[in-house]
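Sequence of Carbamoyl phosphate synthase small chain (Ruthenibacterium lactatiformans).
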Amino acid sequence: MKAYLLLANGMVFEGRAFGAAGTSVGEVVFNTGMVGYEETLTDPSYYGQIITQTYPLVGNYGVNGEDAESARIWAFGYIVRELCGTPSNFRCQKTLDEFLKEQGIIGIAGVDTRRLTRIIRESGVMNGALTTEYKSADAVRADAALMEKIKAYTVKDAVDSVTTKCMETFNENGKYHVALFDFGYKRNILRNLVKRGCKVTLVPGRTTAAELAALEVDGVMLSNGPGDPAENVKIIENLKEIAALGRPVFGICLGHQLMALATGAKTEKLKYGHRGVNQPVTDFAKDRTFITSQNHGYAVVAGTVDPAVAEVSHVNANDGTTEGIRYKNIPCFTVQFHPEACGGPRDTEYLFDDFVAMMKGGC
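Predicted 3D structure, token representation.
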């Protein structure tokens, strides 16, 4: 079966369909990672987006549910150059085609993903549609109603769409009790906390300071998540009160952005974002540059961080964007990249150790 990708600029890419049939509209982005396609697909941060995988061969080791970052696929579509239909791995439970099909997600193979990536890099992230419901590229291009739907699309209510609806506790006998805010959390954040002896209570994204105080937690973890951080007005207001509780706070990705907004800084949308496992980040305190895993389309504007409130602790070595903030008047630090790194390098897992040390009162 043929499938088509229609971009907001009118360009059409033709390929072979896999996964589910139908039409899906979303924000078309690209990921440069050579590994970790299963983790990428199940990362809630991709809610509302159609992922272009730049590595040419995808699906060669199949799918194993234990590697997933959440219970389902959150991306709205998947674009690959070459799909492997015969994966070879002793842990494989199903093919990538089967994985997408059972969850109703459209995929397209046979697309020149390098060309598509160049278009996005030049023009910026743009909306698009994946569809199997047309007989030719000309028919797709001629559908004015579909183009209007593409142009009108925005990622809305993202955090509310992916967050848990109820609290759940893991590692009940852990030494330090951490409230993990689910803005679209990755399971590897939970794994890293439990590995360090923490009791973890997963809480909905809109949990208030009063509800948090009732849990008697030792620390607060602000997770990654999708969408425009500034959209989360109520959560930002909650974080102002949560910061006043005085509990150690560690934020990752969206959690980093939300804490910055709660303390008066601003965020901006990047031209095409940072998505991959090879992003260099300089840690000023360590005077060292680390290779990190990243997935974000927004960034904190460094010039809006009040020096009386906080300081920028990490920057992206490629474009100078803010990658970390350390706060001066509250026990809090946040980073834009993913120290839980799955898939990707694990060199910055030391930040979880720093967070546990804060709960011990060591820093």
